[in-house]
Amino acid sequence: MDYVNMTVERSNVQLSKADFESDQMVKWCPGCGAHAILAAVERVFPKIGYRKENFCMVSGIGCSSRFPYYVNTYGFHGIHGRAAAISTGVKIANPRLSVWMATGDGDSLAIGGNHFIHIIRRNVDINILLFNNQIYGLTKGQYSPTTPMGKITKTSPQGTIEHPFTVGELVMGAQGTFFARVPDNNINLMTEAMFEAARHDGTSIIEIMQNCIIFADKAHNDITGKEVKDETMLVVKNGEPMIFGKNRDKGIILRDTHLEVAEIGKNGVTLDDILVHDQYNQDPGIQLMLAKLAPPHFPMVFGVIRSAMYPTYDDLVEEQIKYAKETSEIRNVDDLLNSGDTWEI
Amino acid sequence: MAKKKRPVIERDDVVVKFVGDSGDGMQLTGNMFSDVAALIGNDLATFPDFPAEIRAPQNTIAGVSGFQVHMGNSKIFTTGDLVDVLVAMNPASLRANLKWAKKGATILTDTDAFDEKAIEKAGYKQDPLQDNTLIDYNLVKAPITTLTKESLKDLGVDNKIAERSKNMFALGILYFIFNRDLKPSFHYYEQKFKKKPELIQINKIVLQSGYNYAETVEAIESVIQIAPAKMEKGRYRNITGNVATAWGLLAAAEKSGRPLFLGSYPITPATEILMELAKYKSLGAKVFQAEDEIAGVCSAIGASFTGSLACTTTSGPGLSLKSEAIGLAVITELPLVIVDVQRGGPSTGLPTKSEQSDLYQALFGRNGECPVIVVAASTAENCFYYAYEAAKLSLEHMTPVILLTDGYLGFGSTLFRIPKMADMPSIKPPLAEANDPDFKPYKRDPETLVRKWAIPGTEGLRHRVGGLEKEDIIGTVSNDPLNHQKMVDYRAAKVEKVADFIPEQPIDGAPEGQLLVVSWGGTYGAVHSAVKRLQDEGKSISHAHFHHIMPLPKNTEKVLKGFRKIIVCELNSGQFVNYLRMKFPMPNFYQFNKVQGLPFMINELTDKFNQLLEEK
C-alpha cells in the first residue's frame, strides 16, 4: 500500500496574528494563565502557515474549553470530557484540517479520561493543549486528578487523599508519540512546543502548567517561579545535553537504571557524562523517566520530551480506503445492492 | 424399503423452524432452506432465535439456537406464530420449542441425540420420543447422526467432521418434504468451499443421503408444495433489517454527496450494522469503532460539523449513554442519524430479544427542551428506506434523527426488491457557499427554519458552534433570556415543520368505523395480519401503522377521529398510546401491550380486537 499522507493546504499569503484574533470579549479572569496561551496560539498559527480556514479548534468544558470562542478559526465547543472524541471525528472526516484541542486537567483526565487515552493510543493527528492548573476552575475550586496529594480545596477540606496523575507518564503509558511540557509564563517555550506539535504527525500532547489565579494561585510557582526556576526547571532541547542550574553546572546522568542529578566538574563528572536529549527516540524509556522527574530531588523537565514517528490513525484510514477503492468490485451503491445472491422475478 | 410416490399437498404458507444446540449449524441450515424457497419464488420472512451466550453448555435449554422461516404463495408479513414443521436436533431444543408447534405438526428429530444424559439435561423425566409427549404430532424419528456417518463411510471421513454435517442430512430430509431441487445447495457448497474441495463432496453426499432417506421412510406420507408468490416484477434478494439499515445509510450518502461517517460501539442487536458498514470502504465509508458509546456519537458529531453524513448505531443502553451528546447535536443544529435497534430493557435487560420500549427515551430522553425527529422502520426490507429517509430528513433539516428499529427487524430477514439509485429521492443538504457575504451561523431559511451548513475548510465561513446557547442569527454565546426562549422555540418549530415534508398517515381499510388499530415499528406484520383477518370476516376495523413518530403526520388527528374506538398495540407498557393521548386528548384510546421479549401473536391480537368490537 502506498503511504497516503494527507497534508494540510498552506496559505499563499503571509498570515498574521490579526487573522486569528476573534471579536469576542475574552472572559477569563484577569491574570489567568489562559491569556498567555491564547497569545501563544495567535502567534504560532500564522507561523505554521496553513490556510486560516484549515484550522479547527475543538474543546470540551471548563475554563480552558472556552478557547474556540476566542480564536478566529472554525471552532467547536463540545461537552464535558468529549473533546477528544469530537476532534477524532473531525480529523477522520477531513484529514486536511489542522485540528487543535483545548482542554483541561478535569476535562481530559477525569470525565474524559477514556477518550484521552484512546486518542493517544490511536495516534490521531491532533494537537492537544492541556491546560493543567490542578483545579476545577469553572465550578469554583474542587480538586482535580492532577491536584497534589494533601491539598486543601473546596471538596477536600482536610486535604486530598488521591494520588495525582503525572500527565507525561499517562501519555507514554497510553503509547503517546508526542509529549511536551511548558509553563504558561514563557511564551517562547509555548510557541516552540506548539510549532513542533503541528509538525508532528500524530497525537501531540502539550501539558501547559497554567496558573489559576483564583482557586489555585501559584500552584506551579515552586517550579516555574522566577526566583526558583533556574534550579527547578530543566528545559530540554533535542541533541543537547540536559543541563540546568543558575550557573549551568548541573546535569542529568544515567546511573545504572535511573537518572541522577550531577554537578559538572565534581566527582569526575564531565560534560560528556551528561545525557543528551533524544526526543525522536522511539523507545520511550529515558523520555518517561524525564517526564516523571520532579522536585525536591530533581528539576521538572520542560520542552518537547518525546516526538516519535509512528503511522497516524487518520493516514491509515485513508490508506485502507484507497486500497479498497482500487481493489473492490463494489464501486457504487447500485453495485452493492446487486452484489451476492440475487434473482429476477 | 421401496421408494414410493407420495401425494402432493398444496399449501398457501408453511412455517418451518430448525432448532438444535448452538453449534449444530441451525442458522446456516435455516438460511440455506430459505434461499431455496426464495429462489423458486416463495415470499418469506425469517427470524433467528439464538441465546445471549455464545456457547452455553451443550444439550441445555440455554444453549438452544433456532431459525424460523415462514414462506408462502402470497405476501408474507410475519415469521409465523406457530410452526408446521419443527426440526429438533436434540432433546433440549425439542423441549424449548414444542410449545410453538401446531397440533399435528411434523416434528423431525435426530434419535441419536436422545441419549439418557441429554434427555435428563433437557429436563425430561423420560424419553419424549417413547412416551406420549408427541402423540399429537406427526413424528419423524431418524437416526440422523448414524446415517450421516454411514453415508460418508466410503470416503473415510473422520467421525468429528461427519457429525458436524448432520445438519445437512436434516436439510436433505426437508428438501424432500418440500419437493425442493438440491442443485442450488450443491452450487452453494461449490462456492463456499472452493478452497476445501473435500467439503464440497462431503456436504453433497450428506444432503443427497438425507433426501434419499426421506424418500424411503414411511413416516413421511406426503410432500408439500408451495406455489410461487405473485410478486412485483424485479430483481430480488434476501436482506436482514440490520443490513438494510446499513445500506440505506450508504445510499443516502451517495445520493447527498456527503461522505458517510459511522462512529459506533459494538452492542447487541445493533452490531451488525457497524460490521456491515466496515466492509464498504470502497464506497468511501469511514467507520470508526469507538472506545465507548459516547465516543461513538461524539466522533459522529465532529464528523457532522466537518460535513459528513454522520451516524451512530446502538441499542437502548447505548442510547442512554448518548443522550447528552444528542443534545449537543440539537443545539448546534447539525445533522446526525442515531439508529436504535431496540432490545428488552431496562438496563442490560434481554439483549437478544425484541421490544419497543425505547420510544419514550427517543422522544424525551435528554436534558432541556430537546426535540429530535423520530422515525421507525416496520419490516426488514423497509429498514433500507427508513434509514435513507432518516438521513434525508437529518441532512435537509439540520437536526438529529433517531431511527427506531428492533432486534426482531434487525436480525429478521425478508425479500427485498432491489431499487435503482436513480429512482431514490434527491437529498439536498443546505450547504453554505464559500465567501457568502450573508452567511451567519444561525441565520435560518424562513420556511423551514433550517440554518446553513458551513463546512470547515471553506473560505470565508469561519465560525464557532457549541453547547452553550447561541445568539439568534449571529451565533455568538448568549445568556439573554428572551434569546433563549426564541432559540428554544425555533428548534421545536423546526422539527414540527418536518411534518410538511413527510407523507400523510395512510389507513389500511375504511377511514371511518368501529375500531382503529394503531401500531408502529416492528409489529407491522402481526398487526396487519390480524386486522386483515377480521376485515375478511367483514368487521368494521381499520389499521394505521405509523412510521413517523416525531413529528406525526399532519392528518393524524383526522385519522384517529374517524373511529369509535382506537386500540394502540405495542411491545411496551403503552408508550405510543400515551404520546397520542398527550397530543390528542380523547377518551377512546385503548391499549394492548406485551413486554415479554416476544413478538405479537396474530391470535392474541384478533381476540382483543373482537372483544373491543363486541363490547358496546
Structural summary, described in words:
The complex is a heterodimer of chains A (345) and B (616). In chain A, 29% of the residues lie in helices and 18% in strands. Chain A has 345 residues and is of the alpha/beta class. In chain A, the strands form 2 sheets. In chain A, strands 2-1-3-4-6-5-11-7 form an 8-stranded mixed β-sheet, with helices on both faces. Chain A has a 3-stranded antiparallel β-sheet with strand order 8-9-10. In chain A, strand 9 and strand 10 form a beta hairpin. In chain A, helix 1 crosses helix 6, helix 3 packs across helix 4 (113-122) and helix 5 (167-173) packs antiparallel against helix 9 (285-292). The longest helix of chain A has 15 residues, at 34-48. Chain B is globular and about 85 Å long. The model of chain B has no long low-confidence stretch (mean pLDDT 96). Chain B folds into 3 domains: 8-225, Pyruvate-ferredoxin Oxidoreductase, domain 3 (3-Layer(aba) Sandwich), CATH 3.40.920.10; 232-499, Rossmann fold (3-Layer(aba) Sandwich), CATH 3.40.50; 513-614, Rossmann fold (3-Layer(aba) Sandwich), CATH 3.40.50.920. In chain B, the strands form 4 sheets. In chain B, strands 7-6-5-2-4-3-16-9 form an 8-stranded mixed β-sheet, with helices on both faces. Classes of the chains: A alpha/beta (345), B alpha/beta (616). The interface between A and B is large, with 58 and 66 residues.
